[in-house]
Design brief:
With about 450 residues, this protein is an alpha/beta fold. The protein is built from 14 helices and 24 strands. α9 (about 180-200) links the parallel β11 (about 175-180) and β12 (about 210-215). InterPro entries: FAD/NAD-bd_sf, FAD/NAD-binding_dom, NDH-2.
Length: about 450
Amino acid sequence: MVKEPARILVVGGGYVGLYTALRLQRKLKSELRSGRAEIVVVTPEPYMTYQPFLPEAAAGSISPRHVVVPLRRVLDRCKIVIGEAQSIDHAKRVASVTTLATEDEGSDPMELTYDELVLAPGSISRTLPVPGLADHGIGFKTVEEAIGLRNHVIEQMDIASSTRDPALRDAALTFVFVGGGYAGVEALGELEDMARYASRYYHNLKPEDMKWILVEASDRILPEVGAEMGRYTVRELRGRNIDVRLETRLDTCEDRVAVLDDGSRFPTRTLVWTAGVKPHPILAATDLPKDERGRLKCTATLTVDGTTHAWAAGDAAAVPDVTADEPGKECAPNAQHAVRQATVLGDNIVASLRKQPLKEYAHRYAGSVASLGLHKGVAHVYGRKLKGYPAWFMHRVYHLSRVPTFNRKARVLAEWTLSGLFKREIVSLGSLEHPRAEFELAAGGGRPKESS
């Protein structure tokens, strides 16, 4: 039993934030009912996004609302604050937070005091100073970006089908993806598969009319599945007429022309940037110790090194891998570790409050799975290498088991079952991004300029 009242502040509503808060509300039921404990979750969105499903959401295999988990429903014993932490003074145990009402109120950020801090803000896209990237690049970290990209790809096919300008048609049908990690490869694989299927419904488009280009700065893609499976993935993609450029960088994308450092030039209306992530900016606005990459220095018990009452896990934390053979190795910043770290983190906070010993996080990496489109995939799990349909099936089974709540599991499984019985949906709902356009036109305001 917790002897002294404690407010636990969780910053972030992603994997670590959700699972930690979920673990805490299960372990502290009596304390939460009696008021001896309070859990406050600060998150910019009222939902957690299960990112491994973003490629399938972009391809239309899963409904967008089933890729997200509503925090208020799942964390019903926690206080959810929709906002962003601007700074944290751990010495004073105070976090400065802006909410959705801050700007409308014209007020200063609110100050939240806490007794225990869990920093789990995740990461943001790591961009480079590439000319034109900020103007024309599309990210792939949120469900909004995934659905926006799906609408955009179908819209480009509509443009290509209706134009008489060969240069515009060529640019509309050229899709450039920068980054050969999970996000880039899976997004490209799923969207190419979807576009190939959709082309049968256009009277003047064929799959071979489209150019799909993957640009990767290193000498291989999908390093998590191993060198052999990475080479297989390159062969599989090239077999689908996808241009895979290894050891190649994007120099510029000004004026909607992607220029690579090997001299290639591709006029394109679609440039997807998935070239890595970096720590969330809130980490720099704290007085907690950080490593050379800007992540929080953590111990194996998931406490922030050299401090008390501060905890972290996931992308924001540099957690030592106690199962590694070589000293100094850290856990990879991926969902496999984040979900498991959150369970240990929640248990350790409860143990700390109850003056009990903490346990170390130890998990030997099981392997990785990746989807390359419908019925296509690669996997390297517990030393076994799979490809094609078996790997794709394992990808689906694994992530179905990992997505939070039985409700979401049932809905995703139902959608997969129905998609196997009926044809794909290939409609673009790009107008969702401009919901007031028709009313503004009717009211005499004119139609907003489209961004595609």
